[in-house]
Amino acid sequence: MQRRRGRTERVRRRRRSSGSRGVNESCRSEFIELRKWLKERKFEDTGLLVPACFPGTGRGLMSKASLQEGQVIISLPESCLLTTDTVIRSSVGPYIKKWKPPVSPLLALCTFLVSERHAGSHSLWKSYLDILPKSYTCPVCLEPEVVDLLPGPLRAKAEEQRARVQDLFASSRDFFSTLQPLFAESVDSIFSYHAFLWAWCTVNTRAVYLKSRRQECLSSEPDTCALAPFLDLLNHSPHVQVKAAFNEKTRCYEIRTASRCRKHQEAFICYGPHDNQRLLLEYGFVAFGNPHACVPVSGEMLLKYLPPADKQVHKKLSILEDHGFTGNLTFGWDGPSWRLLTALKLLCLEAERFTSWKKVLIGDVISDRNEKASLGVAQKICSDFIAEIHSELRKVSDMKERKGSLISQLCLVEALRMEELRILQASAEILSSSLAPLS
Ligand SMILES: C[S@@+](CC[C@H](N)C(=O)[O-])C[C@H]1O[C@@H](n2cnc3c(N)ncnc32)[C@H](O)[C@@H]1O
């Protein structure tokens, strides 16, 4: 029989959940305008979700009633979606159609966003543009000295992202100059790098996946991004499941939740099973307690930890290479990944057992000595990483004191490093309990 809850317990439960409770922002003028705009475009507002500001995740959508598994929580008509079709039908369309070689779908969307933002109150998309963030925190927007504080693998990807965006901008300038007849001001000032970067980040952090039909006037790169006003206010949680797709019958982009959500809680979608480095790279944030978060270990790094004077080292490395064991090696919340441990077991394999290398790769235990040696190396890597993160955190905190203007960017790096530290500490505990019976 279910126990009836007393008043004290109800109050306690309410207090416990109020930590994640948001402040309803639906009365703000920009959201009132957005609602009107959506209604004009046939959006049926059920009032189920309202914009709100949450303590942990910032602006998002709050449920006004409890959401049940399988329920459609947003159904956004085609007329509300911003796709390359929208762009081609707009004033920049004829210029896109004329330009050779054809512009990419991504460039078409960015061009539209910059042009419409410049149009201000004359834009048909004003109500949507007004709710878009003014700035972003993807690595491409971070100061180089902050990027330098990112973990090595992410730093490399961040630099590659910056180079890609800068290249796209530089190679698009001739195309932008053809748009001059549309504007009274110089296109150089309208299509500045700053404006382009804002548009690129808008598409990169907010677009939903929607495969559009191939447009002859666009390049053959995949045309799979659409901006979905209102729906793009949903934040990410790695703990929820949703189905998101365009419904051909209703001609609406629908989000169907597969997870429950209590009344007045934040409603989330899942952007994918991304680790924190990927979330920071693509979306400019870090998720706390992310089950997919991990700390990567590069193949080259393992070399530093090899037993000295191992004559079989080259053979071992080429086995790892041939069997794809040099990438995707990680520490996670439940310790070193199976792939990392397997690579270490092979590298620690005693000379007289070398012929058993195939058994190692399928997960067989070769000897206590091999188990102990590989776990010992994992432990050493883990403790070196922990020391390195402490030192990086000190650098971040020094810079926070010296460079007040970079605080929010530095807090992001700090959040990432703190999560990595927690993962490594969890791994260190698991490793020492796995080693205990072997010593
Ligand atoms: C599609 S938008 C979601 C709505 C957005 N928060 C807004 O105010 O417009 C994606 C962006 O929201 C933020 N975001 C999403 N999920 C988040 C989370 N769990 N924690 C913090 N920020 C999050 C990130 O800045 C991300 O780039």
Automatic annotation (TrEMBL):
Alphabetic keyword roster: Cytoplasm, Inflammatory response, Methyltransferase, Nucleus, S-adenosyl-L-methionine, Transferase
Main localization of the protein described in the UniProt heading: cytoplasm
Any Pfam family matching the protein: Rubis-subs-bind
SUPFAM superfamilies hit by this protein: SET domain
GO-annotated molecular function: histone H3K4 monomethyltransferase activity; histone H4K20 methyltransferase activity
GO cellular component, one term: nucleus
Reaction(s) this enzyme catalyzes, per UniProt: L-lysyl(20)-[histone H4] + S-adenosyl-L-methionine = N(6)-methyl-L-lysyl(20)-[histone H4] + S-adenosyl-L-homocysteine + H(+); N(6)-methyl-L-lysyl(4)-[histone H3] + S-adenosyl-L-methionine = N(6),N(6)-dimethyl-L-lysyl(4)-[histone H3] + S-adenosyl-L-homocysteine + H(+); L-lysyl(4)-[histone H3] + S-adenosyl-L-methionine = N(6)-methyl-L-lysyl(4)-[histone H3] + S-adenosyl-L-homocysteine + H(+); N(6),N(6)-dimethyl-L-lysyl(20)-[histone H4] + S-adenosyl-L-methionine = N(6),N(6),N(6)-trimethyl-L-lysyl(20)-[histone H4] + S-adenosyl-L-homocysteine + H(+)
Any one of the GO BP annotations: positive regulation of tumor necrosis factor production
Domain SET, residue spans: 36-272
First-level EC class: transferase
Cellular localisation: Cytoplasm, Cytosol; Nucleus
Coiled-coil segments: none
Domain of life: Eukaryota
Ranges annotated as biased composition (Basic residues): 1-18
Annotated region (Disordered), positions in chain: 1-23
Gene3D superfamilies: Rubisco LSMT, substrate-binding domain (3.90.1420.10), set domain protein methyltransferase, domain 1 (3.90.1410.10)
InterPro entries (alphabetical): Rubisco_LSMT_subst-bd, Rubisco_LSMT_subst-bd_sf, SET_dom, SET_dom_sf, SET_MeTrfase, SETD3_SETD6_MTase, SETD4_SET
PROSITE patterns given in the database record: SET (PS50280)
EC numbers: 2.1.1.364
Subunit structure, interactors included: Forms a ternary complex with TBK1 and ZNF268; the interaction with TBK1 is ZNF268-dependent and leads to TBK1 monomethylation.
Family statement drawn from the similarity comment of this UniProt entry: Belongs to the class V-like SAM-binding methyltransferase superfamily. SETD4 family.
Name of the featured protein: SET domain-containing protein 4
